[in-house]
Amino acid sequence: MDRVLKVHSNLIILLPKGESSVAVTLRLARHGTRSKPFYRIVAAEKSKKRDGRFIEVVGFYHPLYDPPRVNFKEDRVKHWLEKGAQATEKVTSLIKKAFPGVIEQREEARRKRLIAARRKRKERAKNRSKAV
After folding, report:
1. Which of 6, 16, 95, 122 is 20 to 30 A from 71 in CA distance terms?
2. Which residues make Cβ contacts (< 8 Å) with residue 30, sequence separation at least 6?
């Protein structure tokens, strides 16, 4: 039996039984002509093609301007990052420039969770060795 996962207000994805979520990534989708590219910053399923189907456009990147122009929907970027979306290297650097501290806060929270998990594992191992 398939599970229904509502990713966005107008997008419903059927998941095979046992699969818990969809891997979403924030990445660049190339548009424009051969010598005049511009990019949409999109939230897309990881398995989809670079310029293929996406869930939502969260910004634009125009690299040909000096300095390059970047436009984000801040609330949507934060929404997807909170949901666990992974950003590509380029998108991560653009987010860091546009919203200082957002990525750093996320990385710090992740680091704290990892440290807490390591402490719990060490404590459990110590308790097991005492019980034996």
Report:
1. 6
2. 37, 39, 50, 51
Give the domain extent around 75. Answer: 23-100
Give the separation between CA 62 and CA 79, rounded to whole angstroms. Answer: 23
Query: Global pTM?
Result: 0.65
| DSSP result, 90-112 | HHHHHHHHHSTTHHHHHHHHHHH
Distances in whole angstroms, Cα of residue 126 to Cα of each of 30, 119, 120, 121: 53, 10, 10, 9
Residue 51 lies in a domain: yes
Residue 94 lies in a domain: yes
Q: Is residue 27 part of a domain?
A: yes
11-70 pLDDT, tens per residue? 655 555 544 456 888 999 999 999 999 999 999 888 877 777 888 899 999 999 888 899
**What residues contact 112, with CB distance under 8 A and at least 6 apart?**
none
